[in-house]
Amino acid sequence: GAAYGMFPFGTAYCTSKIALSRMTNLLAEAVKEHGITVFALAPGGPSAMTEILATSPNVPQEINALFRNDLEAIHETDASVQMLLFLLSGQADMLTGRHISYTDSIDDLLHRTDEILRDDLYTLQLRI
Q1: Whole-angstrom distance, CA of residue 125 vs CA of residue 109
Q2: How far apart (Å, rounded) are the C-alpha atoms in residues 33 and 116?
Q3: What is the rounded radius of gyration, in angstroms, for the C-alpha atoms of the chain?
């Protein structure tokens, strides 16, 4: 989410996520001839105070609204693991280089593979 949304006081953090997404796309292109697949998996949002938030002197109290309760964190972890297992299964190999979120529907990804490839979806690129 940080690669595509706004995160108060998170300029460096968000920029690193954008770079990771783009690097995934470029790396996948570089190694595809060797049968290697590469994905950027967005595993979910913050479920606890992390070091980046705890050490920032300018984080407003509203940031607390971003934190999830323990049940939501457990659900995110389970959904992230399910998506990771799907990506490791080889069923999504055609989508190498894409930025996939734990919230994406596995069935949707499989059914929309042709469209995703044709329209170059789930990548971060400047379109002119």
Answers
A1: 19
A2: 20
A3: 16
